[in-house]
Design brief:
Strands 1-3-2 form a 3-stranded antiparallel sheet. It has one domain. The protein is mainly alpha-helical and about 80 residues long. Helix 1 packs across helix 2. Strand 2 and strand 3 form a beta hairpin.
Length: about 80
Amino acid sequence: MYMTIQETAAFLSMSEEQVNRYVLEGRIRTVHDGEQYMINTSQFDTHFKQLEQAKHALEEWRATPIPDDVDIKDED
């Protein structure tokens, strides 16, 4: 599915200026139809998968209890 820069900005929760900058830098691939840039959204699938994996790893890390430190001595 192809979207315009405005639609892509809303899809990625970014500003239009940032999406334009990424297009000009080549970080987002586009097709120019003579009037506007069209962006294929399938190129973001890997990004969203990696984002979900990072969120899952962070949640696992947060859920892991802190181990007792063997070097702590009871002063009582």
